[in-house]
Design brief:
Layout: H1 5-24, E1 40-45, E2 51-55, E3 64-66, H2 79-83, E4 87-89, E5 95-97
Antiparallel strand pairs: 1-2, 1-3, 4-5
């Protein structure tokens, strides 16, 4: 018994869609993860590479500082997130290489 035409059309469409995804590498579906949730800002561990998120209406906890203006990571693996993996702030707020 021959297969219904709708089934063949649906199957062809699914194969074409899968091929399109494979050929484009899903480039239009890139996912980026924010460093902090809404209502929070990132802070850096002084003399270390640790980080945390602090509520917008609070100051950083002891041992943490705000990132220098213009050098704040916003998404995981963005330019500043990568930079701060090898740099930190000292007690005076100067940027120094992380040990």
């Amino acid at each position: 018994m021959p297969k219904p035409r709708r089934f063949q059309t649906l199957a062809a469409a699914l194969v074409a869609a899968a091929a399109a995804v494979a050929l484009t590498g899903c480039s239009g579906w890139e996912y980026t993860e924010n460093i902090c949730n809404s209502g929070e800002y990132p802070v850096l561990q002084v003399n270390g590479t640790g980080s945390a998120c602090t509520p917008d209406d609070e100051e950083p906890a002891d041992g943490y500082a705000r990132y220098p203006e213009g050098k704040v990571p916003e998404q995981v693996d963005d330019k500043w997130d990568v930079y701060w993996r090898t740099h930190t702030l000292d007690e005076k707020g100067d940027i120094v290489p992380a040990s």
